[in-house]
Design a protein that fits this description.
By secondary structure, this protein is an alpha/beta fold. The chain has four domains: about 10-135, no CATH class; about 145-245, Phosphorylase Kinase, domain 1; about 265-500, Transferase(Phosphotransferase), domain 1; about 555-775, Rossmann fold, CATH 3.40.50. A six-stranded mixed β-sheet has the order 3-7-8-6-5-4, with helices on one face. A six-stranded mixed β-sheet has the order 17-16-15-18-19-20, with helices on both faces. It is elongated, with a radius of gyration of 36 Å. The chain starts with 7 loop residues before the first helix and ends in a 23-residue tail after the last helix.
Length: about 800
């Protein structure tokens, strides 16, 4: 402690105060910017020490000082303490005169308003040197917003535990701060995340701060609660070239640790609690993906992606209940996130692929070739849907097969990706896809779960279906948005609860644990149940990737091709607002499946029409091109459309032109005529619709157009099966209207209606076979359609 030009009594005050600051019961320990342990005195300790009488006693030794005790205790307590400690108290008026109070500490340079003086320079030099002991970092809500701290600034860390180090790039530490330095409303235990790599730290740090800032700023008003299911963010700062974030501490670690340390649920209640907790993560993605809507006050808004969704980045907290499956899960680690502006002029803008975790990344993020690594890859929020689907997939395996089953699932993916030349050794080993679509290991384990789950577990099999149908889809099968998944998960949970608690429960047997390395065991022999759209999509995928397809599906599809070989297929897609808003993904997936089968039957390509522009025909042998057109129509914001009557009329006009005339048919015995007729094949018209066409009269007008086609067929002497009209129904609202069209002329029936969830082969047979046509297929979407097998297509 330096001694100034003071009297003995004044010096004694300084010595006495210095001795007090060295008392072990008073001093507290923290860390400076180099990680060195240093002592400090908190503001609370100073307040307790500097009672009125003690400040008064010290000031009595300075006859020329006219500082007000009340002012010192309210605004200059740290300044006063530093000056007493350095024996410079007689200069306190220079601080009060220029307003250098506690709020301006710590000082980094001499105040410009101070007069030039060697003595004042010496005073300030002592002040700068010793101020840090009395100015530890004070943690308060909203105060730390990127400040660059001096290396001497003390972090009031009482205890620390390293949680994770990431290849010298970052360090995650659980810290407990001295309660004296933490304002009310903040926890004393937090996570201090430090980016330490000098080359990458600024970029990763900025990405995280940007993400938290945009998420918090997206609140519609200041009273909106803090965002749920996102790890809480308390502030950020820079010190000694390290970039720090202060984050919420999760008492039970991350989801990966939870799976390792916790046994799966053994009751339906536990299973429902677990999946209800998991579904809340979807709400976190909704916040990340939609940062405010465009409205009257804003011509643009932000979309975002996390790009590193994985079990390690999902934090786990219990809700303070003894139940280990009732959890609060929060998304953390936004170092790979990206946010970009979208506007009315560019609503389809995409973000930059920041290359998050490779194992859980989507197929469109793969960079397994040099050419792919050299370009900037553009991605959208759907990459997070894929990653969350991977997390859900592993969670489903854990829920049914335990931690050992999850480990073997990972091993099965590793073994499969090692056999793929384009993935082996690229860092994507063990991922969930082959570069385009889900691995066989993923499909097989989901089938295994559906067979091996406990009888009381009504929800986990449905989760695997949700994953396959809405999340782990290739680029030709659009994934659901986070908003859509949020609604679907709620319905799924309710349906599963109704099934579980509507039946009697038996004692719960011990959960199955996979003991064999091969996952899953040999599948059971194929059954004769209906073939779904999803099964046809897997069949298509297997054929494209030259993998052995499901034998049952392959045999049925080949049989169908022989029965109706050469038949033309025309698609009319209802792209009205109700169809685009409710059934977009279902329509695309159904078209992908049906057009793939139709292409193998119809050798000269497929025709596609839309109700919004029925006079325009799209034709191609490549169904991928037609799928792109369909996706463009369904992504368009345009609501313009023709009536269903006008659309059906246009398409029927096109079909009539393709029909052979009665004159040509009567000349079939002449040379060349048979060959000409062979180019006039029979036709199936698929109409995708929800049946909501405005009013009941619209049904009669559509019926008139169908009757016109029937009259054309009869007038040309063609058979009833020459043209078949197959309505593919989406939703239940228009079911009665479509039933009416199906039955309007039983004596010469060319119309059938099926749900898009029905047996795919029946959709192709439809009115061609009366038995298929007469099936009671008007099952509501919320229930299972009646199983059926392929029927003969006599007369096709």
């Amino acid at each position: 402690m330096p001694l100034g030009d003071v009297s003995g009594g004044q010096a004694r005050s300084s010595i006495s105060f210095a001795q007090w600051t060295g008392d072990p019961s008073v001093r507290q320990g923290g860390e400076d910017g180099t990680g060195k342990y240093v002592d400090f005195i908190s503001h609370r300790k100073l307040s307790e020490h500097w009672a009125w009488w003690r400040v008064q006693e010290v000031l009595h030794g300075f006859y020329d000082v006219t500082a007000d005790i009340r002012t010192i205790r309210s605004s200059y307590l740290r300044v006063f303490s530093i000056l007493v400690f350095t024996d410079r108290l007689k200069y306190i008026e220079h601080f009060t005169e220029h307003g250098v109070n506690d709020e301006r500490l710590p000082l980094l340079q001499r105040p410009a308003s101070w007069p030039e003086s060697r003595k004042l320079d010496a005073v300030f030099g002592d002040f700068l040197k010793h101020q840090w002991k009395f100015c530890p970092l004070q943690l308060s809500a909203g105060a730390l917003t990127g400040q660059r701290l001096d290396p001497r600034h003390i972090l009031p860390i009482q205890a620390r535990t390293v949680l994770r180090k990431s290849n010298a790039i970052s360090e995650v530490v659980r810290v407990t701060f001295h309660s004296d330095c933490v304002d009310q409303g903040l926890p004393t235990t937090m996570v201090l995340k430090a980016y330490t790599d000098t080359s990458m730290a600024p970029q990763l740090y900025k990405a995280e701060v940007n993400a938290f800032t945009k998420i918090y700023n997206s609140a519609p008003n200041p009273t909106t609660p803090k965002p749920q299911y996102i790890v809480e963010f308390y502030g950020n700062f820079i010190q000694s070239n390290k970039h720090y974030l202060l984050l919420e501490f999760a008492s039970e670690g991350n989801l990966d640790m939870y799976f390792e340390s916790t046994s799966p649920p053994k009751s339906p209640w536990g299973m429902f609690q677990f999946w209800e907790s998991m579904f809340k993560l979807i709400g976190g993605l909704v916040l990340i993906h939609n940062l405010g809507g465009r409205g009257e006050l804003a011509a643009s808004s932000f979309l975002g992606t996390h790009q590193d969704i994985k079990p390690d980045n999902i934090l786990v907290n219990s809700k303070g209940t003894p139940d280990e499956y009732s959890l609060t899960l929060k998304i953390a680690d936004f170092g790979a996130s990206d946010f970009w502006r979208v506007s009315d002029g560019d609503p389809d803008a995409l973000g930059i692929d920041k290359k998050g975790d490779q194992v859980y990344s989507a197929p469109e993020c793969i960079a397994n070739y040099e050419a792919l690594r050299r370009i900037i890859n553009r991605v959208g929020p759907e990459v997070d849907i894929w990653s969350l689907g991977c997390v859900f997939s592993e969670a489903a395996v854990w829920a049914v097969c335990g931690h050992k089953g999850r480990e073997r699932y990972r091993e099965s993916r590793l073994q499969e990706t090692k056999r793929i030349d384009s993935i082996r050794g690229t860092g994507f080993d063990g991922c969930f896809h082959d570069g385009i679509e889900p691995l066989n290991a993923v499909t097989c384990i989901h089938e295994h779960i559906r067979r091996s789950r406990q009888a009381w577990d009504t929800i986990t099999p449905k989760i695997t279906q949700l994953i396959s149908e809405s999340m782990l889809l290739d680029s030709m099968g659009p994934r659901k948005t986070a908003r859509e998944l949020l609604l679907l998960s709620g319905r799924l949970l309710q349906t599963a609860r109704d099934e579980a608690f509507g039946a009697s429960h038996t004692p719960v047997p011990q959960l199955l644990v996979l003991d064999q390395p091969a996952l899953p065991p040999i599948p059971p022999p194929p059954d004769t149940s209906k073939i779904t759209i999803e099964e046809v999509q897997r069949y298509r995928s297997d054929m494209k990737r030259r993998r052995p397809p499901n034998e049952h599906v392959a045999t049925a599809c080949e049989s169908l091709q022989r029965q109706i070989r050469g038949r033309d297929h025309v698609f009319l897609i209802d792209d009205s607002t109700s169809m685009k808003t409710k059934y977009r993904n279902d329509v695309v997936n159904t078209f992908i499946a049906l057009s793939y089968v139709a292409k193998r039957i119809d050798g000269d390509g497929i025709d596609l029409f839309f109700t919004s522009e029925p006079s325009r025909r799209y034709h191609s042998r490549h169904t991928s091109k037609l799928t792109e057109e369909l996706q463009l129509h369904y992504q368009s914001a345009s609501n313009s459309r023709a009536t269903m009557e006008a659309s059906v009329s246009e398409v029927i006009d096109y079909i009539v032109k393709k029909l052979p005339s009665s004159f040509s048919k009567s000349l079939t015995g002449l040379p060349g005529i048979s060959h000409w007729l062979a180019g006039r094949p029979k036709i199936t018209l698929f109409v995708f619709t929800d049946g909501l066409w405005g009013c009941p009269a619209a049904i009669s007008r559509v019926e008139n157009q169908i009757e016109r086609l029937r009259n054309e067929l009869q007038g040309r002497g063609l058979s009833r099966v020459w043209v078949a009209i197959q309505f593919i129904r989406f939703g239940d609202e228009g079911i009665e209207y479509l039933r009416h069209l199906d039955n309007f002329d039983p004596s010469w029936d060319i119309v059938d209606s099926k749900s898009h969830k029905d047996h795919v082969l029946d959709m192709f047979i439809g009115s061609i076979d009366e038995e298929v046509d007469n099936k009671d297929d008007y099952t509501y979407e919320g229930t299972s359609a009646r199983d059926s097998s392929p029927n003969s297509a006599s007369g096709a």
